[in-house]
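Task card 7
Instruction: Convert sequence to structure tokens.
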Amino acid sequence: MAAKLSETSTRSRILMTAMSLFARDGIKGVTLRKISADSGSANTAAVHYHFKDRTGLIAAIIEFLTEHVWEPGYEGLEQAVEQKVPLRELIAIGLWPSKQISWEFPWGGEAQAFMFHVVTGSDERGRELLSRMASRHDELFERALRDALSDLPQAVFEQRLQFMQTEAVAGQHVRARMLKTTPVDDWTKDKERQYFSRYLDYVVGGLTAPVTE
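Output:
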């Protein structure tokens, strides 16, 4: 069972601290000793005690995200597919795990960055676990979009889907990093929502654009 948000246990503090540090410095850029210390644990081997090693810690964070992000995201997407919602709404719901969590949860931005570092990192076990976590959701999302865009040739559909996914993951991470290093006056969650709304306009337009040879 993944750690609950309300828990104040040492294990829960270590998990959330690790996700934050991994998000900021990358998976290999943080020592387990630092994670233990920054979580407030007097025992420098606390990570080893609760998670055994780095891979065990990454797996626990992914389990946490599965419970709080990907399982609810899949359920919401499943309902949207059953209700046959319009394309724009379908995309918004389908991108919830990679986009809207940034304002739905106080740790959402860190979760996004953590997942990006796992995807692009060298920890094969972490990538495997993350892929397994997201696969059910992503497969349903792709099938739903394929049904909604049935007139598109398959090759064109796959390319446009890749464009959308690249921005949703890599683009989101890069933009978040820029916001942290470049002064932006009064950047709020409302502006983040506004950005996402415009992004949806862009994606819908791109997915439904005429095909040219």
